[in-house]
Design brief:
globular, alpha+beta
Length: 495
């Protein structure tokens, strides 16, 4: 596909990484963002003098030579204030009253957990070797080493069944699943590749970013502008115009017609097809398929601003679960699992200024308020969030005594918040639900039936910072060719 100009809809991580790649390869890039700031799920906000992240918490595989390091070096993002989490315990998993540390590095990971489960050393070794194999092959397609057969076969295998076959102790299976609120643990659908690739990246190394995730997208936007591209905020795409089987342009804010040679949408696939009018290429069967895709669950978040004296900063994540919680089949009637995340102190202090509590929440729990404007959803919605906050606090305060007394103020969000502010379908946390039973229809490619309309973002291949960054490479390969993408790795352009 030979194109000179590209219009990208959405300035989240997917749209911006695509824009960066294409601008660096000489294309005229215009990115349109409906919100007043770029970033999507990587946006930040301040309450008082305290900075909170919207959806960014930590990343994996950022050490030199690892996968995200390779990508972020190319994107010129390694000079941001990254902080590596505690290598002896980057994630702490609590099952009931018992605590289990996850150590960085595959061998350290096995050694640490084997001290708690000596009878499962062989299973743990097998588990981590498999994860490492997946991580070692993550860039093979881009380097011309294979055609994707290895990863594709793992998209058609069950993560849950792999865990059962590899680890015999039910408690250890729960522990290994316990840090996986960074994906939807669905026993009947989750592909093995998703589970393995994400968990492997964090075992390699785990990192937070002092100053918030918006630094990533702000830096990308700045770089695109310096390369001659345009990044516009407050620019809502209201229609995608097709003529003679190709997209000719988009309507911005209901009035401006913007032309381009190629178009990339980082929106949810159902939103993308809804903006395309009558089309000979995009038939009803495809539209219905995109509209019918199931979404992953969302998140309830309590962003807690701490009192000036703060609370001891923890350089690890804490995953707290009720002992009887079924992590692979969420009980939506209870709060059984909470992720505790500490923001890196901006002052360099050893006292935290804020902490986030995150817990799975389904769209059905908040759907009855979906037609009410933000801030006007009524007292019952406020009470609902207060009850959820209290349930989260009760679950974590045994592990963090004194946290409740250190609270200054709490700000909450639900899947409705993500739906309203970031336009995520049903407020889903991880895009569409990939199903190992039907990978051909749930693991999407960048292509659409219209040749010059492509997609990118978390709903396609993989979610998360690493997954979305990789997906942008596949999307851009459709425009500039895989040979250009392979140069990023084979010629060590920015490593």
């Amino acid at each position: 596909m030979k194109r000179n100009s590209v219009v990208i809809i959405g300035a989240g991580l997917g749209g911006l990484t695509c824009g960066y790649i294409l601008a660096k390869n000489g294309m005229k890039v215009t990115i349109l963002e409906r919100e007043t700031q770029v970033g999507g799920c990587l946006q930040t906000f301040r309450r008082g003098n305290v900075l909170f992240d919207t959806g960014f918490h930590y990343v994996g595989a950022l050490k030199e030579g690892e996968s995200l390091y390779t990508l972020f070096s190319y994107f010129d993002l390694m000079n941001l204030p990254w902080l590596q989490l505690d290598e002896t315990c980057f994630d702490e998993v609590m099952i009931g009253e018992d605590s289990y540390p996850f150590a960085s590095g595959h061998e350290n990971f096995v050694e640490t957990l084997s001290s708690y489960f000596p009878h499962e050393r062989e299973g743990l070794t097998k588990y981590t070797l498999f994860l490492k194999q997946v991580g070692d092959h993550i860039f093979d397609t881009f380097q011309g080493k294979n055609d994707g057969t290895f990863s594709n076969s793992l998209f058609a295998r069950s993560a849950y069944e792999f865990l059962k076959e590899t680890i015999h102790d039910p408690l250890l299976r729960k522990v290994l699943s316990g840090s996986s609120l960074k994906m939807e643990l669905n026993a009947s659908t989750l592909p093995l590749y998703t589970f393995a690739q994400i968990n492997d990246s964090f075992i390699r190394s785990a990192w937070r970013l002092q100053g918030g995730g918006s630094q990533i997208t702000d830096k990308l936007a700045e770089s695109i502008r310096l390369m001659g591209g345009e990044v516009r905020v407050g620019a809502t795409v209201t229609d995608i115009i097709e003529e003679d089987g190709e997209i000719k342009g988009v309507i911005v804010n209901g009035e401006e017609f913007l032309q381009g040679d190629c178009f990339i949408s980082s929106m949810h696939p159902s939103y993308t097809v809804s903006l395309v009018g009558e089309s000979k290429k995009m038939r009803r069967i495809y539209r219905n398929r995109m509209a019918g895709l199931e979404n992953t669950f969302g998140m309830f978040t309590a962003n807690i601003r701490l009192k000036p004296e703060g609370f001891p900063y923890l350089n690890r994540n804490l995953f707290v679960h009720e002992r009887n919680a079924d992590l692979w089949n969420v009980n939506w009637g209870r709060t059984e699992s909470v992720l505790v995340h500490f923001g890196v102190p901006e002052t360099g202090s050893d006292r935290a200024a804020c902490v986030d509590l995150l817990s799975p929440m389904s769209w059905k729990e908040v759907e009855k308020w979906k037609d009410f404007p933000v801030g006007r959803r009524g007292e019952d919605y406020v009470s609902f969030k207060e009850e959820k906050t209290e349930a989260c606090l009760k679950l974590v305060e045994k592990r963090l005594p004194g946290l409740r007394e250190a609270i200054d103020r709490i700000y909450t969000s639900t899947p409705l918040s993500y739906h309203s502010y970031i336009a995520t379908a049903e407020g889903c946390a991880y895009g569409i639900r990939k199903d190992y039973n039907n990978p051909m229809f749930t693991v999407l490619t960048p292509r659409t039936p219209i040749p010059n309309l492509l997609q990118t973002g978390q709903s396609l291949n993989l979610h998360g910072v690493l997954g979305v960054s990789m997906t942008s490479l596949f999307t851009c390969a459709e425009i500039i060719g895989m040979d250009k993408i392979m140069e990023i790795f084979n010629n060590n352009q920015a490593i």
